[in-house]
Amino acid sequence: MKGNFEFRTRKSNRSLWVIECIDPNCSWRLCASKIVPESTKFVIRKYVGVHCCSLLNRNANHRQAIYVVIGEQVAPQYVGVEKGPGPKGVQTFARTKLGAQISYYKAWRGRKHAHTLIRGSPEQSFHILPSYFHVLEKLNPGTVTRIEVDGESRFKYLFLAFGVAIRGFRYMRKVVGIDGTFLKGQYRGVLLVATAQDGNGQCYPLAWGIVDSENEDAWTWFLTQLKEVIGDTDELALISDRAPSIKKAISIVFEKAHHGACAWHVAQNIKNKFKCADIMGSYWSAVNAYRCEDFAGYMTEISHRYPRVAEYLENEVGFEKWSRCHYPGLRYNITTTNMVESLNSMLVNARDFPYVALLDVIQEKMSKWWNDRRIVAMAITAPLTLSRESEFRPRFAQSNGRHTLQLNPVTYHVKGGELEGVVDIFNKTCTCKEFDIDKLPCVHAIAAAHHAQVSVYSLVSPYYTKEYYVLAYGETIYPVGSQSQWDVPNEVATRVVLPREVKERKRGRPKTSRFPSVGEFRKRKNRCGKCGAYGHYKKKCNSQTGSTEGNQPTDVPV
Fold first, then answer.
1. Which end of the chain, C or N, has fewer beta carbons within 10 A?
2. What is the pLDDT of residues 40-76, one digit of tens each?
């Protein structure tokens, strides 16, 4: 193939294979036959390796450069990576490494075949899913997996929560963000995620699910499984967008937990419905206000400028859903679902994989996080996690010079600064409300602790301490290994899980990008047809020729 020599098959049957050069006057020839009639292996009996044909017969559009061959050759480039070369990269590989000119479509099929060789086919993924979950549970004790099928044994839902994460949740603040993101593979679906946030402000994935779509039945099933692993208490807070299906499912499944709305999604809805982006500063100040008095001031400002926005926030959304000071439970400083969105972004390439390959990526990511964060946690010398210690130290400095008056054995009046505070060091409260909500001592509480000769670290919530941080990542998440090493009972291996029925796709390139959310706008920069740079049209191009440094894009399109 590298020499652009093509061949044709002269004879082929179960025991003999003879090929020769496409030019009948050329002597190049290869003959192979079975070693013995019962064998499946062939041995080369004769080979004439010299071409004597004309150079005119050489063809870069090689007839043997089929997508299967291309896929087999390029497959190693997809091992251990999530993305690998795209179709154009496969075209370049075929041209430089194989000497073959192939079409974009053939490169796309070759890339798809390479993915199948490395990650398995989507159909095979459904077949081995019960065995995969069995091995995962065996290697990671306490792991909870569920597979839901319909009456015809077709896949419907799956649920996965690693035992390590379930046990580690006791060292997390009881705030869980939930959201979903669409999958791009052949059988599509939606990946659901539930994640907490550790004491260092990092994502702590609790559970994963794959469902057909974000509907009420799917969310109810997923949250039912989630409830079994994290429980349902008054301390629990669930944060999500305001999708009706999520809201209804939470009300059905969780009786004690409190539901809060993502403040960012509420902001996007405001900008989309009322076209008032200039009010966002007041809105975010209201979101983050600790005291109801401050909140009322920001809402008065909003109502004076945009009465309909104030009415929307109070009556349609509800203050208790998005406002920190009105929230009936405890959501600490977590006002958005950014922790979930970051997980979705992390899997942007893997969302094209078959389900088992996607779960492998999730397991690999979590294993790495647990190991890396364990190393970081063990190296911490301060009592608190790194992010909380950096947040705590400026408060410590600001508390110097505050005048403190003791009112009783546990209550102190702290003066100085913009706001006075009355601190109860026993109940760990302050009238500024920062101490109450964040569970991290405010400047008033620190000053009171100094006066009472009490360690300020004793007032910090244990969720922010190094001890809890180490315990949260103290265990290991193990991979399932090669399928040939699996030890699976027959009743598990023979369980039938068929692929779900999907609608026939429209012709053309499959869509791989999602529709923007409400209020989300994607800016697109223009690309010059003359110099290739972004940000201007060809008519306004200042480049003298098309072969200047402007040929290289000076900016990356959003």
1. C
2. 888 988 888 887 877 666 665 666 677 888 888 888 8
Bigger pLDDT: 448 or 350? 448
Alpha helices in 162-207 (DSSP H): 163-168
pLDDT digits (tens, 9 = 90+) for 371-404: 999 999 999 999 999 999 998 889 888 888 889 9
Q: Which of 42, 352, 69, 373 is nearest to 203 (CA)?
A: 373
Backbone angles phi, psi at 175, to 5 degrees: -125, 120
Q: Which pLDDT score, from 0 to 100, does residue 546 have?
A: 45
Sign, Cα dihedral of 460, 461, 466, 467: positive
pLDDT in tens, 445-469: 999 999 999 999 999 999 999 999 9
203-211 vs 190-197, strand pairing mode: antiparallel
Query: Dihedral angle at the C-alpha atoms of 513, 515, 519, 522, nearest 10 degrees?
Result: 40
Location of structure tokens 């405010």: 442
Inter-residue contact 340 to 178 (CB < 8 Å): yes
Pairing between β-strand 16-21 and β-strand 7-12 as defined by DSSP bridges: antiparallel
Handedness of CA 125, 131, 137, 138 (dihedral sign): negative
160 backbone dihedrals φ, ψ, rounded to 5°: -145, 125
Residue 120: CB atoms within 10 A of its CB come to: 19
Residue of 266, 227, 226 lying closest to 243 (CA atoms): 266
Q: Of 185, 263, 242, 195, nearest to 500 (Cα)?
A: 185
